[in-house]
Fold:
Amino acid sequence: MADQAQRLREFVRERQSRARVLAITSGKGGVGKTNTSVNLAIALVAQGSRTVLLDADLGLANVEVLLGLNSLYNLQHVIDGEKRLMQVLVKGPGGIDVIPGSSGIAKLADLGPIARQNVLNGLKEVQEEVDFVIIDTMAGIGQNATAFAAAADEVLLVTTPEPSSIVDAYAMVKTIHGMRDDAIFRVIVNMAATPQQANAVAAKLNKVAQQYLGRSLSYLGYIPRDPHVAQGVMQTYPFSLKFPNAPATKCVEELARRIIHQRAEVDRGRPGFFKRFAQSLGLVSNG
Ligand SMILES: Nc1ncnc2c1ncn2[C@@H]1O[C@H](COP(=O)(O)OP(=O)(O)OP(=O)(O)O)[C@@H](O)[C@H]1O
Ligand SMILES: [Mg+2]
Structure:
């Protein structure tokens, strides 16, 4: 497992100048990961970023259901070496490209080295073509979810205001932090009653992470509890396309804006190797 995470990380590091890989995770299930992934991907495309959505919830392939897609090929064919990842990409609503998951396959950690390499090679190829790869992961601290989260450039942690969801979100942070202490976490509070409530939830999570892990979690934003979300689910069509003026849609668009904007911040905030090296030698100031 440690080996696998290490290899995924190296792979991602090599590719850092390519697409930004964002893993959508949560501790508790059913908090809105898939809806967030799908509608965030659509908002990123609408704001001019080429975006691929990877359904890595290998237990139940939810993304396809939510998008009303029924594709012939999926991740399983890549794992089996029958298709390249590029060949299983399907166009979803709103101009997103989707890599359909496969129901019922074993955990990523249980895959053999060839199968894993098939997936990694494909991801490498995809990453060269787009701006964002959004990974909808499984809930909880299972190996599949954490392997993807630990390999991603950023972990978007979804929680609701419910105490059990917050506690499980913290457990997820702790697990990923244990695998990789430089992971970047951004908190999304879903099903918030008010922006103030969302703020308080994010602040609480941040405080606990600071206290027990010595690290901070940045707050990306919130999505309100909004009946349009469930209506979209019932109609197997993304709520943001069905209801462009819904409060949840407006908030997802704002999340996308912040993510795109943060690219510049991340790039500015992360000096290149030579600058860092020079700083450590005291040749240039830290400013
Ligand atoms: N902002 C929201 N407002 C109202 N209802 C919501 C909201 N977000 C999600 N829901 C409801 O919660 C259900 C679960 O959402 P979703 O499938 O996105 O969660 P998930 O975290 O992906 O679940 P799983 O852990 O099973 O993969 C949706 O079907 C929808 O009815
Ligand atoms: Mg899901």
